[in-house]
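Quick review question:
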């Protein structure tokens, strides 16, 4: 029951850092401010994915990818209901599910490393994973001129087809602190 709120807090922190804003200490537990909504999103996301998996494994995987951005949507829009977040996640992931699936497959080696090192590697792998997922979310977000998002996220741009920058606010130092591997991410963008 604490996991959805902790996940929401991590999303707040990583999206804030990627938007070029230094998160405040109170954001460390900001997911608990909207605890019930995060639990509902997590519950419905898990329930719907499970029900789709009963049909066959492949539809379950497809729906898991489709619903993957629901917590990020809740993070930016605390007033949305769980079903609205899931519906908007499905719309946001149209045409992006294979890219997301490949991106997650690229972490299999990292998670195996966590197992082999008895969890020690997770000190680096978990922040790396969350930073990559937050970057993916920012990358697929539609940009509008009258965007009033909580994070004031700059629009990602591809500078030379090999790197991604997020406006002038985000420096290379922050990316390296987040352990974001642009080679892995860009390989999934072009594949």
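Suggested answer, residue by residue:
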């Amino acid at each position: 029951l604490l996991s959805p709120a902790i996940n929401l807090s991590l999303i707040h922190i990583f999206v804030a850092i990627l938007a070029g804003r230094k998160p405040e200490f109170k954001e460390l537990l900001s997911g608990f401010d909207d605890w019930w909504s995060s639990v509902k999103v997590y519950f419905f996301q898990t329930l719907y994915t499970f029900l789709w998996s009963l049909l066959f494994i492949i539809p379950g995987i497809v729906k898991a990818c489709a619903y993957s951005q629901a917590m990020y949507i809740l993070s930016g829009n605390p007033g949305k209901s769980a079903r609205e977040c899931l519906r908007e996640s499905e719309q946001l992931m149209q045409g992006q599910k294979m890219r997301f699936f490949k991106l997650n497959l690229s972490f299999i080696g990292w998670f195996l490393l966590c197992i082999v090192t008895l969890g020690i590697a997770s000190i680096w792998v978990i922040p790396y994973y969350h930073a990559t997922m937050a970057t993916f979310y920012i990358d697929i977000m539609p940009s509008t001129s009258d965007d009033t998002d909580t994070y004031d996220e700059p629009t990602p741009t591809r500078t030379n087809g090999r790197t991604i920058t997020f406006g002038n606010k985000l420096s290379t130092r922050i990316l390296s602190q987040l352990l974001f591997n642009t080679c892995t991410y860009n390989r999934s963008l072009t594949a």
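Why it works: DSSP finds ten helices and two strands in the chain. Residues 145-186 have pLDDT under 50 and may be disordered.
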